[in-house]
Batch of 3 targets.
Target 1
Amino acid sequence: MLAPGVRVEGYEVVSVLAIGAMCQVYEARAEHEARPVAVKVLHEMWCADQDIVTRFRNEASVLGRIQHPHVVRLLATGTLRAGSPYMILERLPTHLARALDDTEDIVPSQTAVRLASQIASALLALHRRGIVHRDLKPANVLLDAHDLAEAEVRLADLGLAKVRPEARSEQLAVGHISTGGGALLGTWDYMAPEQWIKSKAAGVEADVYSLGVLLFQMLAGRPPYVAEEPKELMALHLFESPPIDLLGAQTPPALRDLVGRMLNKVPATRPAMQEVSELLESFR
């Protein structure tokens, strides 16, 4: 743990923001800068696992190459004296998961479309560089304001991102990690059917599906599939048609149709992210 007052790259640690299974995140400030930053540090216990260290450094490498208004900005990266790699990122006050928890009702369709359009724009920028996010979920969508009607999006956490072979030499500063074909990569509620079967083979279509789940959740007030057990949830994603009728009358027919297409079971039948982005922009 970094104690308050410790300095990293000229930033002074103020407090702990989050402690996860893999990383600790701190708020820090520079002496002459008004805005705080987030310092993301790999847990010391994982520093002996070369694959995990490589994945962390690759995430920093990708973020350093993506300059996009809706992707979280990397400010610096390095290694602490104790051996843990770190990233310094722009600090956002909240994220979409917290905002949805605080919302007692569904998100108005115009607000949902605006937020989804920004996310689609960020994902499209990744896809054009040969990168699949593979873990799109509300907690990985940072917001620059607590009010959803005013907030702008920053897509974050590329720790599970997949870089296509032809783009690896450009995007990765450290190296490629070969993930076992049987490993589940993603967050269950938002995983595309193909991620349940073979995560390693999932392509950009999986991000389209996950965005469809997230958009559905904003419009309906709940994800399309809800289950207690992983096997039951997997069966719903694999075989059950999305309950589009839950979207209600507030969702325009064209938007309902787009969400339904994004949630198609077969990857090739989903719209490309370019089309998703263009349609969402046209709905605004």
Target 2
Amino acid sequence: MTTILITGANKGIGFEAARQLIAVGHTVYIGSRDGERGRRAAEQLGARMVQLDVTDDASVAAAAKTIDADGGLDVLINNAGVQAEMSDGKVTIGAAEVTADVMRETFETNVFGTVRVTHAFLPLLQRSAAPVIVNVSSALASLTLVTTPGTRRYDYLGVAYPASKTAVNVLTVQYAKAFPNIRINSVEPGFTGTDLNQGAGHQTVEQGAEIIVRMAQVNPDGPTGGYFAASGPLPW
């Protein structure tokens, strides 16, 4: 039986990915900053719950200790994220408005949180027979796509969120090189309507979760150090 932790999974794409993975027989931990919301989500899904704030060292360390004591971990899905530059479904903080504080807030969750959680859970994953890490990225992280005129990615005017997800892609590549026994990939869920973008996305959470669920179940001889959407590999 595969044991999976999904950060930020009490709602949105993380919640749906948990639902799909539980449906095919996996044991899933809902990582939730808010303990009560996490408990309600876990009860609804038949999941396990662990309180986990990716911006807090002590919280992450305690979550790793709990899951280790329960038997360990096979798959880590770094899903928790913020998009502070959006309001009412629109970018309100572009290049002219972005500040170091906005960048810091975004990177604290999207980048430093990914590093914090990955570092804490690496010892558990390395004891797994088939360890996997899925980093939830974005097509906005692709320098190729955001420099291609006439596309939605090119037209996106925010700075902090794309920069943070490009950093996540670099983390994916470097971790994959450092740990060849772990399948480590970035995924692009697509523009999915969630609280992250105030429901502006055009995809359903079922569609958005599909690539996360697929890459969480990759075989030990499957791809690593890659960047994937549901349609296939994406350009860096």
Target 3
Amino acid sequence: MTVGGLSKNEFLSLLFREHHGWLAAWLRKKTGCPHHAADLAQEAFARILCLADPAALQQPRAFMVTTATRLIIDEERKRKLELAYLDALALMRDSHQACADSPEQIMLAVEALDAIAAMLEGLAEKPRRAFLMNRLDGLSHGEIAAELKVSASMVKQYLAAAALHCYRALYPAAPDIRTA
């Protein structure tokens, strides 16, 4: 193919020499980054190379601007899609993390609570409540005393009684530690 006596390669070379600098400058203004602008200009020219008849371009700059604008729009769409994908992955990871850990942790917690409930069977209500408030809720002796309306020293006795009760539930064949 020849255009005005030029081969296709000569025409493309002339087109590049005449318009590349202008297109790169236009893209620098649009993107604010000379490196990104150079990449987009290169991609725009690569698309011109793929045209069946580049010599048919009546207004090469208009074609380059349209092509470069579409490239910028495509990049923005890809960026938004990538961000949405990353956000979705983060949500899935967070919910998957919660879901992945949650059933196992719930099962372990339920089993532990069942074991604690079994150990505390037969214990009077106030020592049992004091033990649970201390061990599960992390309340201090004073806070438990206020809740149960007893003295702090009584809470200490309740906790000791609950600990002894749990020891006996765990080790039924063990000697009585009060007499040892």
